[in-house]
Every structure is written in C-alpha cells, then in structure tokens.
Amino acid sequence: MALRATIYKIELHIADMNRHHYATYPLTVARHPSETDERMMVRLMAFALNAHEDLQFTKGISDADEPDLWQKDLTGAIQCWLEVGQPDDKRLLKAAGKSDQVKVYCFSGPASRIWWEGMRTTWARSNKFEVYSFAQSQTQSLAKAVSRNMVVHVTIEDSTLTVIAGDETFTIGVEPWTLNH
Known about the structure:
The chain is an alpha/beta fold and 181 residues long. The protein has helices at residues 37-49, 89-98, 110-123, 136-143; strands at 6-16, 21-31, 55-57, 69-72, 78-84, 99-106, 129-134, 149-157, 160-165, 168-177. Strands 2-1-8-9-10-7-6-5-4-3 form a 10-stranded mixed sheet, with helices on both faces. A hairpin with a 2-residue loop joins strand 8 (149-157) and strand 9 (160-165). The protein is globular.
C-alpha cells in the first residue's frame, strides 16, 4: 500500500514590510511521504515571501509537471513558478517556457552553493530567474516547530524573516543569489 501525504492545517499571518502586504492565509498543506519537515517549512517561507491571493501550493513532488507553488492569473496563465531545493536545468527550462517568472528557494547549505555554481552560467542571460538561499541551520531549527495544526506569524523586513510558531521565535535570513557574479 502506498504511503499517503500528511495534511497540515496552517494559519499563516504575514506582515511583509518590504511589499506592504499584510494578510492572514488559512492553508492546507500536504506533505509528501518523501518530503522532510524542513522542506515543507521552506515551502511555507516561500509562500510568505511571495504571498498573494492567487498563490497556491501544488502537487509539487507528486507531479513532475507542477512546481511547489505557483501563481496563475484569471486566464490560467502561470505568472510565477516557485521551486524549493535544487531543481535540474530541464525542469527550470520547462518552468521558463510556461511562466513569466521563476523563483528557486535553496536550503541545503554547501550542496545548494555547488548546485548554484553549476546553474548560474546557464541562466545568466535570462531575466526570468531569481534564486534565494536560506541558511541550513536556520531552516533545520524551524523544522522543529512543525505540528499538524499550526499558527505561524511571519514578519518580513529587508532580507530577514522573523517567524513565530507556537512558543518559539526564529530568525531566518534569505540571501538573493545573483546571476552575474
């Protein structure tokens, strides 16, 4: 018998000082059996950084044709394709062909940096891509706050996310990796 996704109910409160976006999102997040708590929380942080009424979690790991999150317009056209981890170049090429913008959120420390060094020259000519990195030690700490029903408060200011989950407060830095250096 195949393992099923674990369902998480999350009430996400966002105060994004950078974009002046303040909202609460009642979310249902399915965690694939092969996904770690850390990766799921990075998906949640990617949602917080890009929060919009049309941003949605997708089948992600379960479906090779969908990203981890996407934002579509009213016609169904993909405006933003968001990936977590270290997607391969074929997947990113497909994403660039289907969407206006592609964002990748890395969290695997040195492995992410090696991935990026290999990808950077490939995508240097494109203006569709943005790549960000979370410090691995910070995302690993955040993963410890996971529970099936969570209330999470995220305040975003400059390149720092202050996350309150349960009785814990976490500071998560996000570093933009540029294509041209």
